[in-house]
Amino acid sequence: MVYKLLFIVLFLFSACSKTGEQHVPVESPNSEAFLRFEEAQKAEDTREKMSLLSAALATVEMRDTLATEILDFKIYYHNSLKEYDSAVYYSDSLIRVAQVQQDTAAIALGLYRRSRSRFYLDEHEEVFRDAFEARKLYLSVKDSSSAGRRSLEMANAQTRMGDHTGSRESATEALRYLKPATDSVYVGSAYNIIAISYRQQGFNEDAITEYRNALRFATKRADSLIYLNNIALAHQDLGNYMEAIAILEELVRGAANENLNSRARFLDNLAYTKWLHDENANVEKDLLTALNMRLEAGTGRGK
Q1: Distances (CA, A) of 246 to 42, 145, 206
Q2: Where are the CATH 1.25.40 domain residues in the chain?
Q3: Residues 6 or more apart in contact with residue 112 via CB below 8 angstroms
Q4: How is domain 32-121 classified at the CATH fold level?
Q5: In Å, what is the CA distance from 165 to each residue of 161, 162, 189, 197, 202?
Q6: pLDDT, tens digit, 9 for 90 and up, residues 74-96
Q7: pTM
Q8: Kind plus residue range of the DSSP H or E element containing 185
Q9: How far, CA to CA in Å, does 256 sit from each of 24, 99, 252, 263?
Q10: Which of 73, 121, 174, 184 would bridge with 152, disulfide CB 3.0–4.6 Å?
């Protein structure tokens, strides 16, 4: 009896972390939930994936760490199907399960997933709130990169709500946490948001400086083109039409392999800037070409 009790105590001790939290292991590879989850990852059809994930979720123990993985996949595919309300529902479930498991990083993940779904629903106050709470949790587990990315989402939400000063502050804070060596895309986005806030408030010289900072961290050609386009527009706002035209002409020449929307945007901006510079400039052909590109791409939007 003594030996049996000692075995139980040792088993319980080994199942706990140094912080005293008890962790339930992932389901056995032979469990129903694990097998359905494996099948879901291999399935090619999204609806079939969803059906298999639902089957896995129905049989998994909520204290099992596999539950959070299944829920995370469910959220992702609901978003991919534009079923955003369902994605919010399963994000709530992920948060609750992670709270039961006392898994701080998983709670933060659930808040992040919910913020992304709410972004698609244009619920930007809620996006800001969830990103703010997720950032606090990521900081508590020393994950500075994730904290920086959540700060960036806060800044984006503030931009959409018209709070340009707050957006600039959040993006500046993101730069404190992001690591240029591994987060260069996000660093560039942070500088871009700071530049946008300056431009929206009429500080175009400052905006150009920050757009150039963003350009230094661009790792994708598409991002570089966006930042250059933004620099041109800031020059346009300042009345520096020749500088803007030079940049936009270079973009139009170099955008042959870009998508139609991007090509149309650059050409439209070039034509408009030429007209601002000289009201007698013949820009009708370029404007019509840009319009036809947007119509072909299925959007009538310009800048």
Answers
A1: 50, 37, 20
A2: 32-121
A3: 130, 131, 134, 146, 150, 153
A4: 1.25.40
A5: 11, 9, 16, 7, 12
A6: 999 999 999 999 999 999 999 99
A7: 0.83
A8: helix 184-200
A9: 54, 50, 7, 7
A10: 174
